Amino acid sequence: SAMSDCRVNPDASKLAPPDDSSLPVFVYGTLMEGQPGFHQLKKFAPRVRTAQVPGLLYLRDGLPLLDVGNDGPVKGQLLEFLEESREQAVGIICQFEPPEQYEWRQVETLDGVRANALQGRYLNKGGAEPAPENRWSLDMDPVFSDALDVVRATAKVHAGKEFPNAPSVDWNRAFHIQMA
Fold first, then answer.
1. Concatenated DSSP letters for the chain?
2. Backbone phi, psi, residue 84, to 5°
3. CB atoms near residue 160 (< 10 Å)
4. What integer best gives the mean pLDDT of the chain?
5. Pair 104, 25: CB distance under 8 Å
6. Which of 68, 128, 72 is nearest to 101 (CA)?
7. What Å distances lie between residue 76 and 32, 38, 50, 61, 155, CA to CA?
C-alpha cells in the first residue's frame, strides 16, 4: 500500500481530515446509500452516483478495507457534498470511521473523477481476506445475515408456545428466549 495523503492528527482517537476536503468522497461500505451509515450524510450529499476505483477490497472483522492499486475495480459510490457543509460531512466521516483501520487517500474513479477515499491500513495483519466480487454490503456480513437466522430460529423454537401459569418457571426456555 502506498503512503497516506493524511496530515498528522493531534487527536488520534478520530481520523484526521483529508488534505483536500473539496473533493467528492468515494465510499464502498457502511456509508453508501442503502447501508446503515448513510443516514448521517444524506442531508449533505444531494448527489450520489455509482462509481468504481482501481484496487482490491478486503474484509477484516466484517469491515471492508480498500487497497488502492491496479486491480479490481472496487464498486462503490461517489458522494458529492454541498459546498457549505462539506467540512461538516467530512468531519462526520472522520468521527465515524476508526483511525486504526483507515487512512485518507486520493483516488481516481474509472471515469476520471478525483476523489478522497478511505484506504484500509495494515492489510497484511489480522486475517484480511479478499471481498467476494470486490464489493461490500451489510447483507454479506454473517453477523447481520446468518446470525439473525439463528436468532430467529432459536426464538421460534423456545417462544412458540405460552408459558404455563404455574409457580415454577421453565428457566431454560426463558434464558433461550432472552438470549435470542
1. -PPP-PPP-S-TTSPPPPS-TTS-EEE-STTSTTSTTGGGTGGG-SEEEEEEESEEEEEETTEEEEEESSS-PEEEEEEE--GGGHHHHHHHHHHHS-TTTEEEEEEE-TTS-EEEEEEES-TTSS--EEPGGG---GGGSTTTTHHHHHHHHHHHHHHSSPPPSSSS--HHHHHHHHH-
2. -75, -15
3. 8
4. 84
5. no
6. 128
7. 7, 13, 6, 19, 36
Nearest to 77 by CA among 138, 133, 27, 40: 27
CA-CA-CA-CA torsion sign (158, 159, 160, 161): positive
The predicted-structure confidence for 120-164, as pLDDT tens digits, reads as follows 998 888 788 888 777 766 665 665 556 666 777 777 777 777 777
